[in-house]
From TrEMBL:
This is Tetratricopeptide repeat protein. SUPFAM superfamilies: TPR-like. InterPro entries: TPR-like_helical_dom_sf. Gene3D superfamilies: Tetratricopeptide repeat domain. It comes from Maribacter litopenaei.
């Protein structure tokens, strides 16, 4: 019995030793990739425009910029409170805007999409389309909303109306459409094409592109042209 226990113990020691020798990576090799830094949730740019807002403020530009910055903080932190703050700023912009009316509605609609308030987003998307400014952006938005609502035929209609194989916004939505249909290979193909267009545009318009680390794409930073 003692011999059996001794042999069992020896086998366990050998097994652990072999596992250690066969380890495929050392912890210090990947620790550097696990280091995280707290995202910034303020900036001099934000503080400047936020300071211009008062209780009865009519500072349209301030509401738009502050709303956009709050939206960016939400994307970086996942903190829903920033999304709600962005909503308040954008709603005020929609209320007082005499110019850029369609754009502010699209921005607020995208905020609602992020909150899964799709029916409210649809109302704003239709209003933006009726105003008529930048109709392609409104059609993109309507595709996004109808796809989320499950109105697939309507979504396809809006997608077809914007067809342009040289346009980043169209290609990224075409990829999402094929993802909905379950065609992974085609989805990846269009994502790669969209990435290629974005890379080509980066040198010409570097201020309106940012790298999306989660999927390896470059996407417009402008909230109104965002794709969720």
């Amino acid at each position: 019995m003692k011999l059996y226990i001794y042999i069992l113990g020896l086998l366990l020691v050998c097994s652990c030793s072999e596992e250690s020798n066969n380890r495929v990576a050392s912890q210090r090799d990947y620790d550097k990739y696990l280091v995280t830094h707290a995202p910034k949730t303020t900036s001099k740019y934000f503080e400047l425009w936020n300071s211009k807002i008062r209780l009865d403020s009519m500072q349209l530009t301030s509401f738009g910029i502050v709303g956009g910055e709050y939206g960016r903080y939400f994307k970086e932190t996942g903190d829903i409170s920033y999304l709600k703050k962005a909503e308040r700023s954008l709603k005020r912009a929609v209320e007082i805007a005499s110019v850029g009316r369609a754009g502010y509605r699209r921005s607020l609609a995208r905020n609602y999409i992020s909150q899964h308030r799709f029916k409210e987003a649809l109302v704003l998307a239709n209003e933006a389309r009726e105003i008529g400014t930048d109709p392609k952006e409104s059609q993109y938005l309507l595709f996004d909303v109808h796809l989320e609502l499950g109105n697939y035929r309507t979504a396809e209609k809006y997608l077809d109306s914007t067809k342009n194989m040289k346009d980043f916004g169209y290609l990224i939505r075409l990829a999402k459409w094929n993802d909905y249909k379950g065609d992974l290979e085609t989805t990846i193909n269009f994502m790669e094409k969209a990435k290629g267009l974005a890379v080509e545009s980066k040198n010409r318009d570097s201020d309106c592109l940012e790298c999306d680390q989660s999927c390896g794409l470059l996407r417009p930073r402008w909230e109104d042209r965002g794709f969720l």
